[in-house]
Amino acid sequence: MSVAEKTEKKSGGLGETVSVIVQALILALIIRTFLFQPFSIPSGSMRPTLLEGDYLFVTKWSYGYSRHSLPFSPNIFSGRIFGSAPERGDVAVFKLPPNPSLDYIKRVIGLPGDRIQVRDGQLFINDQAVPREKVGQIDNPDITEVRGPVDVYRETLPNGVSYDTLDLTPNSIGDDTREFIVPEGHYFMMGDNRDNSTDSRFSVGFVPEENLVGRANIIFFSIAEGASPLEIWKWPTQMRPSRLFDFVR
């Protein structure tokens, strides 16, 4: 084989490798933009539903697409394309209204036009009390983030969606609020860890529909808080196998 032939062969091999890498990156970008986006839980605001160390997939098509569906949220169009309204009770990822560079995850509680208020720890929607039943206690710091038993209440929204909430502190600042009237094109979001959640009761405010990224769908991996998923040798003691491939409700 001549020198020219060897050079041409090396050049062709390098070109094919670059082409494969570029195609893979484009495919990954398409999947992330239009289908699924991986998301890790950064805080305990959604305990006991979601724990720090949970890794989940967010379905991007659930609410249609806005500029926030794209990496870095380029301001190339407004509103939503193929938009679909979230349902009350959905666990949704959204861009924080005061700082759209940050992703938050909370539960959709209030829809446009709703009146939302918390009185003595009980949620009211349009002046109707949301059924709230004490279902027991959890004494597991991996779930509650605190030592000692924590009361667990099950709420059932008007559309029948039920979920558990934690009551860490009686008479906390979030247990009694003013009445919030959700504007058109906005949503009221709350964390399931009611006494340890920065949500629409506080600085998050109402979430514009444009800020919705997608609906949390399934937990594909879970590891103890503070552990690194890259440290595979620690998986046997730090992974949470009971949470793998668990649907988010």
TrEMBL record:
Keywords: Hydrolase, Membrane, Protease, Transmembrane, Transmembrane helix. Its main location: membrane. Its EC number is 3.4.21.89. It is found in: Membrane. The chain crosses the membrane at residues 20-39. One of its GO terms (cellular component) is membrane. GO terms for molecular function: serine-type endopeptidase activity; signal peptidase activity. It comes from the Bacteria. This is Signal peptidase I.
